[in-house]
Amino acid sequence: MKLGVMRSAVTITALVSCVATLNACATPQSEPLGSPGGESGATSSSSFQPSYTPDALLGGSHASGAQLDALANALKPNQTIGFGDDRRLVFTYQQQFGCVVQPNDDRNYNGKPADLDPAEFYTPECQVGAPSTIDPTGASVKKTDPLYVLVPFFETDKKSPAFSQKLGKALKKLFGFVPDAFKPDPGVAVQCPAPQDQPATCTMHPLQNDLGPLLTSLGLLPQNTNLYTPLVNHDHLLPDATINQSQEWWQIIVVLVEDPKAWPDAKGNSGITSVAKLRMAQKNKQASGNVPSNFFLYFSSRAMSKGMSSMPGMMR
Q: Cα 36 to the chain's mean position, in Å?
């Protein structure tokens, strides 16, 4: 799969040069991701499985007062905001995420299919760039509605640190910069974390994702390598036809937004707020192509009025 990611010659050079020094970017771990305070856990069956967690007592004001408004502040604990059809949406989550592992999958790359490998399920295997063929209901993903997850893959403030010092050093060596996606204080408004959430978390989302398949497709990691990172900062985008939808499973389709000019502001007055604008940004090389995953969220969506005056507490 060829992705339109990091197109400038300088950035690509930095990415390629880091392949040889990846072990310097990240110390290989013998255990999967542990609690948010640091790496811990049982022995992993993967021979090369680096992982990162946020620093303990991580602070951050991921949404400043200037970015928030009445709608964002009125969200219930199980709600986040999204965009679609150039409108703001409120998502209400009815259960936790799902990351599908099928019987013949080997997502921890130990040479054993999942149906013969209990260790496959020690932690959720939520992989970007390695989609499943079914959703959590068992239906084909071809019938599952997409949720585009927009990731701020640019840096607005070089002085702003990453979720952890270790992660920041690894990203700097991999990409030549630390994307706002991995910072407790991103320089742009994001919908996840929501105002009530801690940095690197979001209601009913996992605490980590495996970016290994994505980076492997870019030639940055060896084949069959896991790379776990904390949940990235992100926005949500639905197709126009599904902005008012009852609860269901949605397949996560990741898009790396590389130009801050294309990033939507908090109220959706600019930037990518519809699929049409997403396609234009992709055409203009401001955003990557679509990157599918085996990661699903379960929620209902309701569109706000054009004046954005409705409150989520007024909806069921």
A: 17
